[in-house]
């Protein structure tokens, strides 16, 4: 009986130890998941919202000159607000929807200049149900508008997307303002890289160059 009791005791200890180990693993996994979610939320919160307020001011000015055009821009702004409030909560959204949001953002930026040709936005390939993390591309485009040298020259910002069923290549090029604060750009890039590492580990290649006043971002994503 003593031997049986000893065996039962050992089995009980092993089972108890295994359950404790399993619970510890589950707790650590849950904490890791929540930590990643918190980091993502913090990174998202760093995306500059000022263009929304600038747009409202520009639309307000436009209302007195061209009410019909102002109304069209208000509809675009409304669409962007809905996107920010509701669709960015998802882990993945339709790539087509994401790029529609990017187009609306570019259209709103164009309000600030009479030279509509200072930015080019081109998409090559076709949509076939691809999914992407929301607002993964916009920070690069925001930076281009924020740091471009001039809104008077043509093609000062060039944005190109090449896509297929499982792969996306994003390129954004802009002339860089000579007096720009490189520390500000560096901080933005750090946050963007962090988000890519969290959302696309081993599934992205990001190359950023700044040569002769030309700032270029090249991002490849496996979708």
Automatic annotation (TrEMBL):
Coiled coil: none annotated. Keywords: Kinase, Transferase. Residues 39-114 form the Signal transduction histidine kinase internal region domain. It comes from the Bacteria. InterPro entries: Bact_2-comp_sensor_kinase, Sig_transdc_His_kin_internal. One of its GO terms (cellular component) is membrane. It holds the Pfam family His_kinase. One of its GO terms (molecular function) is phosphorelay sensor kinase activity. This is Histidine kinase. It comes from Mucilaginibacter pineti.
């Amino acid at each position: 009986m003593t031997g049986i009791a000893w065996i039962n005791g050992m089995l009980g200890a092993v089972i108890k130890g295994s359950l404790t180990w399993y619970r510890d693993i589950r707790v650590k996994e849950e904490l890791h998941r929540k930590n990643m979610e918190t980091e993502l939320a913090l990174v998202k919160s760093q995306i500059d919202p000022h263009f929304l307020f600038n747009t409202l001011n520009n639309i307000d000015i436009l209302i007195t000159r061209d009410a019909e055009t102002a109304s069209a821009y208000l509809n675009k702004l409304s669409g962007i607000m809905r996107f920010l409030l509701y669709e960015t909560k998802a882990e993945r959204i339709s790539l087509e929807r994401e790029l529609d949001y990017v187009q609306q953002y570019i259209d709103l930026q164009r309000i600030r200049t009479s030279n509509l040709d200072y930015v080019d936005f081109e998409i090559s390939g076709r949509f076939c149900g691809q999914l992407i993390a929301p607002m993964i591309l916009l920070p690069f485009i925001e930076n281009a508008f924020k740091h471009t040298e001039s809104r008077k020259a043509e093609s000062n910002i060039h944005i190109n997307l090449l896509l297929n069923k499982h792969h996306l290549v994003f390129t954004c090029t802009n002339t860089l303002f000579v007096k720009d604060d490189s520390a500000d750009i560096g901080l933005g890039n750090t946050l963007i890289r962090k988000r890519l590492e969290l959302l696309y580990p081993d599934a992205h290649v990001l190359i950023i160059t700044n040569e002769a006043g030309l700032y270029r971002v090249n991002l490849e994503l496996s979708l």
